[in-house]
Structure formats: C-alpha cells, structure tokens
Amino acid sequence: MRIGNVKLENNVFLAPMAGVTDLAFRILCKEMGAGLVVSEMVSSKGIYYKDPGTKTLLQVNPKERPIAIQIFGSDPEIMANIVEEYLNPREDIDIIDINMGCPAPKIVKNGDGSALMKDIILARKILREVVKVSNKPVTLKIRMGWDHDNINGVDLAKIAEEEGISALTVHARTRDMFYSGEADWNFIKKVKESVTIPVIGNGDIFEPEDGVRMFELTNCDAIAIGRGSQGNPWIFKRIINLMTGKEDILPSPEEIVRMCIKHLNLVCSIKGERVGVREMRKHTAWYLKGLRNSNEVKNLIYTIDNKEEMERILLEYIGLYS
Fold first, then answer.
1. Cα gap 83→271, rounded to integer Å
2. In 3D, which of 8, 22, 79, 11 has the Cα closest to residue 270?
3. DSSP-assigned letter for residue 292
4. I want to staple 275 with a disulfide (CB 3.0 to 4.6 A). Which of 147, 152, 230, 271 is the partner?
5. CA–CA distance, 280 with 173 (Å, rounded to integer)
6. What pLDDT, in 10s, does the model give residues 251-298?
7. SS3 state at 291
8. Distance (Å, rounded) from C-alpha 225 to C-alpha 239?
9. Please, which pLDDT band fits residue 322 given cuts at 50, 70 and 90?
10. Cα distance between residue 311 and residue 307, in whole Å
11. Whole-number Å distance between alpha carbons of 181 and 183
12. CA angle (289, 293, 295) in 5-degree steps
C-alpha cells in the first residue's frame, strides 16, 4: 500500500492516541508488525511558539519509520507555517496527519479537533493551505460528524479529496459519542464509496477477527488500531497472520510481562526514570489486564517511583507462571 509517495509494508496501522503513542510505544508496535505508526497529536501553536513540551512529542527514531506526525489546530496560516518551516525540512518524518476528529473538551473548546467538523469552510481552508506548502503526503482524520443531527463526514471526505489529501482515516463515531457505544462501520463503507483516495477504518478493533471483519464489511484500504493496542502490541502481527492464513498465536503470560518490562526500560531510556516509571503505571495495568492474580500487582505498581523496583515486581510476577 502507498500513501502518496510513501510505501508501506502492510495496511494494519497504529492509530494516534494522546498520552499513549509516544516514541517508546511506537517502536514496540512497529516491531510487532504495524505498517504505519502515528504520533500523539501535536499542537500547531505549540510548534509555532516553540513550546518545550511540544518538542518531546516530535521525537522520532529510524526504527519506527515510516512515521506520521499528527498535528491539530484551527488557524490555517499557523498550520501551513509550521508545516513549511518546521515539518518540511524534517527528513525523518514521512507523513503529516491533520486531526479533525479529537473529541476532548479541552481541544474542541478552542475550535480544534472534531470542532472543525462544524465549520466545513474553515476545514477546507486548513486542508488547502497545508497541502499547498507540504512536501510530504498529507492525511486527515475525521469522525462521522459532530452529533447525530450533524453527520457530515462524507461531505468532509469529498472536500479532503478535492483539496489533495492523500488518505483519510474515519473513526466511526460522532464527537458526542466520544468512545461510547458501538462504532458504525457502515459509515466507513459510505466514505469509502464516496472517494477514490485510500480510506483507513478506525474504531472498535480489539481482536484480530475485528480487523478482518472491518476490511470485509467496509472494503477500506487499511485499518488503524487505537485502544485495542493498549497493552497489546501483538495485535498487528496477529491480524496480519489471520489475513495471510498463518497461525494466530496468543502471547503467553510470560511474554506479556517481559514485553511490559521491555517497554519500561525503553520509555525510561527515552524520558528518564522519573517520567518513564510514572507513565508505565497505566501501560502496566493494560498489559496485565485479565492475567491471573494481577490486581494486587497492578495496585502495587501504582505506588512505585523506581524502575528497578517495578522491574523486580514484574519479574516476581512471572514466577507465578513458571
């Protein structure tokens, strides 16, 4: 599969998630077979005004390429400026993704994210200005619409194609649904039938069979997995195996815990022990979910600030399965 001039190894992608798809997690997902990984969403104003925290979000590593950087904002001039002045010169970035799907209140209150689905004229202008200056493929992520009385995702998809967007990711919920209820995969199918650019389906892929069913039902060109990858980077390889007729092998409890330890060491090497250990608390809870006698371990992990201590507890937990 290609997005613009970027060739991808497969069509099973990691979806962007704020606070989750950082450099460490993206590297692990890439190692586990993800055809494309996408950064946490980055504020265009944060880049423009040189916010120090934003710089961290833009870290990439050759191991994870091809990599898409997702940006958000509602000022066309600032969006175009940061693409032209900052992202274009970056040879380690392959794709620029624009977020018009984030439902978070702190994002939409500023007119960003899925709020742009309420202002199609402004949305078009942003797409036009960014595509005009970008020397990399530009993609877009949307939802079905703002709410069930304002479902205009197909209209925005057509606009995106007209303005030169190279691929489109559709999260099959409205903004007011956030992540509740069931994703409407039939809407992804409608979008796919309305445009000729690649359409990437997103929403409610938690098991390998879900990914295969989304392909079959929607005829989408690729799928993007978000929450289903949390504590579960194997899902990419498992979906690919299922689609290619290979055996679907579940990771053993020991493999899961050792991946968690690998993740711990990787994130601490990138962000430092203090930040890394704190961020690994939520990841550890995701990794251990459903494993025998894991609640006590998860509760203990949330009290730890030391990498060696966290690793020791996890290694002791592996012993329960030996």
1. 26
2. 22
3. T
4. 271
5. 29
6. 999 999 999 999 999 999 999 999 999 999 999 999 999 999 899 999
7. coil
8. 11
9. low
10. 6
11. 7
12. 55
CA gap 268, 77 in Å, rounded = 37
Q: How far apart are CA 313 and CA 118, in angstroms?
A: 49
Q: Catalytic one among 102, 220, 260, 268? A: 102
| Structural domains for the chain | 2-243 (3.20.20.70), 253-319 (1.10.1200.80)
The neighbour count for residue 171, using CB atoms within 10 Å, is: 28
Query: Coil, helix or strand for 56?
Result: helix
Q: What are phi and psi of 4, to 5 degrees?
A: 60, -125
| Conformation bin of residue 137: beta by default, left when phi > 0, alpha when psi is -120 to 50 | beta
CB atoms within 10 A of CB 42: 26
Q: Report whether the peptide linkage leading into residue 66 is cis, meaning its omega lies within 30 degrees of zero.
A: yes
When the pLDDT of each residue in the chain is averaged and rounded to a whole number, the result is 96
Answer yes or no: pTM beyond 0.90.
yes
Q: Which residue has the tokens 């010169």?
A: 89
Q: Which residue has the tokens 């190692």?
A: 31
Place of tokens 């392959």: 94
DSSP 131: H
Is residue 29 annotated as a catalytic residue, yes or no?
A: no
CA nearest 168: which of 206, 122, 123? 123
